[in-house]
Specification:
alpha+beta; 9 strands; about 45% helix; globular
C-alpha cells in the first residue's frame, strides 16, 4: 500500500488510481474514517454514509459513557484524567475510554462502576477493564506501563493534567506532553 499516494488522494482529492477499498481500509486502520467521511469527503459515497451512521452511534455511546464517568466521579469525589482516548480530532471515535485514577480511588471506582451495572476485572495490578452493553469500555489505571515497565508514575501524571471541553462537559485529561 502506497501511503504517500493515499494521503495525497485524501488530502487533495487528487485522482490517483487507488481503489477506494484501500483508502477506506487505511482510514479505518488509523481511526479517522469517521472524521474523513463526515467532514472531508467532497462527495459522500454509500461507504461514507455507512461510516457516518456507525461513527455517530459510537460517538453517542462514548459521550454517554463519558457523562456517566463525569457524574459518578464528581459525586464520589474521585479524581480522574482521560488519556489516549480523546485525541486532537474529536471525531476519531474509539471503543473504550482510558483514564488514570489515583491509587487510593482505583478499587472504589471499580466498585462504583459495578454498582452501575458494569462488569469489572483487574487485568493487571492497578489496571482494570469495565464493560457494560451500550456503553464504551472503561479502562481505569493508576500508572502507565509498557511491557511491565512503568513509564509514567502516578506522581508525574497528576502534575500534568488540564481540562478539555467535550460536548459541553469539562473533562480532566492529561496534557498533550504526556498523551503520546
Amino acid at each position: 500500500m502506497d501511503y504517500l499516494k493515499i494521503n495525497k488522494t485524501i488530502l487533495e482529492e487528487y485522482p490517483l488510481d487507488i481503489p477506494s477499498s484501500q483508502i477506506y481500509t487505511y482510514l479505518v486502520n488509523n481511526n479517522v474514517a469517521y472524521f474523513y467521511s463526515k467532514h472531508l469527503a467532497l462527495s459522500k459515497t454509500s461507504t461514507d454514509n455507512e461510516i457516518i451512521k456507525i461513527g455517530d452511534k459510537f460517538k453517542q455511546r462514548y459521550l454517554k459513557t463519558l457523562k456517566l464517568i463525569l457524574d459518578l466521579c464528581k459525586k464520589e469525589k474521585i479524581e480522574y484524567a482521560l488519556f489516549k482516548t480523546y485525541k486532537y480530532i474529536d471525531e476519531a471515535v474509539d471503543g473504550d475510554i482510558d483514564l488514570f485514577v489515583k491509587q487510593k480511588d482505583f478499587k472504589r471506582l471499580m466498585g462504583k462502576l459495578v454498582q452501575h451495572g458494569f462488569t469489572c476485572i483487574e487485568t493487571e495490578d492497578s489496571k482494570g477493564l469495565c464493560q457494560r452493553e451500550d456503553f464504551s469500555n472503561i479502562e481505569p489505571r493508576v500508572s502507565a506501563s509498557f511491557h511491565g515497565i512503568e513509564v509514567l508514575s502516578e506522581t508525574e501524571i497528576w502534575k500534568n493534567t488540564e481540562e478539555e471541553e467535550i460536548n459541553n462537559m469539562k473533562i480532566p485529561k492529561v496534557t498533550k506532553l504526556l498523551d503520546i
